Amino acid sequence: MISKYKGIFSNVLKVAIVAFTFWFIYHKLSANTNLKEFKNILSGIPAPEIAAVLSLVVLLMFLNWGLEAVKWKRLLRQIESISLWRSIESVFCGLTWAVFTPNRIGEYGGRVFFLSPKRRIIGVVAMAVGNIGQMVLTNIFGAIAVCLFIYRFVDLDYRLNYALVALSVMFCIFFLIFFFNIRWLNGLLLSMRFTRKYKKFYSILGRYHKKELLHILSLCLARYVVFSTQYFIMFYWLIPDIHYLDILMMVCILFFVQSTLPSLDLFDIGVRSVTASYFFSFVTSQDVAVIACTASIWLINIIIPAILGSYFVFKLNFFGSLNRR
Predict the structure, then answer these.
(1) Is the pTM of this model over 0.85?
(2) For residues 303 and 25, what is the distance between their CA atoms, to the nearest angstrom?
(3) Which of 169, 91, 170, 171 has its CA nearest to residue 130?
(4) Cα-atom radius of gyration of the chain, to the nearest Å?
(5) Burial (CB count <10 Å: 0-12, 13-18, 19+), residue 38
(6) Which of 22, 17, 40, 20 is nearest to 295 (CA)?
(7) pLDDT of 114-150, one tens digit each?
(8) Which own/partner contact pairs does 169-174 have at CB distance under 8 Å and 24+ positions apart?
(9) Residue 50 contacts by C-beta under 8 Å, 6 or more apart in sequence?
(10) Cα gap 247→235, rounded to integer Å
């Protein structure tokens, strides 16, 4: 009888998650004027050209999340062996959960429910290692881009510029040292009495050696290149008067600023638009096109995967192993 009630509750929860996700997406899309501006901009471009460019950006979206699935599978080698397809399912399921939770925290739950119940909390720690790797690259490239931006567009004393470069170098070195020595975090937690009782959950940090972390960071770099390319394609296509190096600089700053601001995925489009509008105003006056490009990438990279991931929500069993079908 208890198993029966668990099954009913599990099914109700799945339906609720999917329904809530679709309601959020519909509500946000119906009120998004930026996407309407994007449609207006495309109205003057030949249909075959539109199809070719958007198809390429969508393919890069699948490549991006495919690389994330490979990284997730790699992170789990220390915990539980899963197939690449199972990893892909969990990544897209996590994106569905992420879309209506603050700072994408639901993505953790969406993924780890694809693991055995006893390994789910450890899976959260493993996923955090991958996210830290992505954050390291975002901060490093962002710091470099900010230095270039200030040098070009902000009139600072040369001594302040040197100081800024020195701080940025120290900033980048700190993140690299921290990531490649993430095992230190395990030792730090063990040194505190009140966290020792949870060591079975975070002790996995001690299993990630430098060679393994380098492999994970290389996958993070591949992802960074892919989604940067998506932005580059859209901006270079719709605003060809911007120099390609300026696009790369602004995109790196855009990622850097976004990573520091708490938000919901669905409301993140507002943050992205404001940030992009401000920084790109230094290199182009086509503000509408900038916001439209940002909104289109948001739709392709966040909304479409969240919709696709809703199918995989129904494959979960919250109280036991996965439904193998």
Answers:
(1) yes
(2) 7
(3) 91
(4) 21
(5) buried
(6) 40
(7) 888 888 889 999 999 999 999 999 999 999 999 999 9
(8) 171/139, 171/143, 172/139, 172/140, 172/143, 172/144
(9) 42
(10) 7
